[in-house]
Design a protein that fits this description.
By secondary structure, this protein is an alpha/beta fold. It is 27% helix and 26% strand. Strands 3, 5, 6, 9, 10, 17 and 18 form a 7-stranded mixed beta sheet that branches. The protein is globular and about 65 Å long.
Length: 361
């Protein structure tokens, strides 16, 4: 039987979000209904509200979530009612060319629930990243549920659903940071901060955090940065080169998503070094680089999709490290809030006051 629950929606571009009642259908084949326990307020949700993703309003916001599986549809074997899960937005298909080549983290046919959640008047909702978790309950594809150890705090576990995983994976999976490497991270919000933490976990010898906000730089130090550069007052390329013997960093993670910071990352890497773009640009942005410089510097220019993670592999492993107190995921939770405080959380995010606000239900 369909259920009515409270949720946060964005009705129109730029309009304040609102809490309203939505209808969640029973799960169909391959689907699951999850009772949400916690959901992080991610910048991607703000992009949806601002029309930066697409114009398929109204949006059901929220995607960085953890909760309990309440019910499952026909044919579901991945999870069962009562499982504690982290939701992910890349449910691999197992059948596309990437999956068949043993690269499921690049799955080209990820899927979402086929049924739509709606407003009370029947208006169909577009769930953010196919999840829509600023809600008491949500409907997802069962493959979007990754079972993890229930000893983890939901407010912490849910952060692996997007931003923290994106940053950790950008360093560990995409950048292949290894023992003794030098790393620079440009942009030290939640994603960049996670890239700093991931670089430390991987054994980097020097981790240079770059930002224009001294508060974020100080936080980056607590997450593992060995050096900080305020790029508002200092040329970051020159500073990174000076800190790396004039060579540049082995891996530079760009966590801003702007042409000017990408160019900084490109020129701040060592010869044959790697640039990882994990910051999300907007559609109108373009990049111009001398092709001879691209050729002459060698190395790799990579984009990181969701930290190139495989949820079934990475989420349980990272939660285990957290429970062993080897990975301080709790450091990203700046505050916990209620469902009706999401709009205010967007404001705090915009002003750089938080790493993560987390809605706890």
């Amino acid at each position: 039987m369909a259920q009515q629950v409270k949720a946060v929606i964005a009705r129109a571009k730029g309009a304040p979000v609102e809490v309203t009642t939505i209808v969640v259908p029973d799960p169909g084949p391959g689907e699951a209904v999850v009772r949400i326990q916690a959901c992080g307020v991610c910048h991607t949700d703000l992009h949806y509200r601002e029309g930066g993703i697409n114009d398929e309003f109204p949006f059901l916001l929220g995607h960085e979530a953890a909760g309990i599986v309440e019910s499952v549809g026909e044919g579901v074997t991945e999870v069962e009612p009562g499982d504690f899960v982290v939701l992910n937005w890349r449910a691999v298909c197992g059948q596309c060319r990437a999956c068949k080549r043993g690269r499921p983290q690049y799955c080209f046919n990820t899927h979402n629930a086929k049924q739509k959640m709606t407003l009370l008047d029947g208006t169909e909702l577009s769930p953010a990243l196919g999840i829509g978790a600023f809600a008491e309950k949500t409907l997802v594809a069962a493959g979007q549920c990754t079972k993890v150890d229930p000893a983890a705090e939901p407010a912490v576990a849910g952060l692996l659903g997007c931003g923290v995983m994106a940053g950790l994976g950008a360093a560990i999976n995409t950048g292949n940071v290894g023992r003794g490497d030098t790393v620079a991270v440009i942009g030290c919000g939640g994603v960049g901060g996670a890239a700093v933490m991931g670089s430390r976990l991987a054994g980097a010898s020097k981790i240079i955090a770059v930002d224009i906000d001294d508060r974020k730089l100080e936080t980056a130090r607590t997450l593992g940065a060995t050096h900080t550069v305020n790029s508002r007052t200092t040329d970051p390329v020159e500073a990174i080169r000076e800190l790396t013997g004039g060579n540049g960093a082995d891996v530079v993670v760009e966590a801003v998503g702007r042409p000017e910071t990408y160019r900084q990352a490109f020129y701040a890497r060592d010869l044959a070094g790697t640039v990882v773009l994990v910051g999300v640009p907007t559609p109108e942005m373009t990049l111009e680089l001398p092709l001879l410089d691209v050729f002459g510097r060698g190395g790799a220019l990579k984009s990181s999709w969701y930290g190139d993670c495989l949820p079934s592999r990475d989420f349980p492993m990272l939660i285990d490290l957290y429970l062993q107190k080897r990975l301080d995921l709790g450091a990203f939770v700046t505050e916990t809030i209620e469902l009706d405080a999401v709009e205010q959380a967007f404001e705090r995010m915009h002003h750089g006051d938080v790493l993560r606000s987390v809605v706890v239900l």
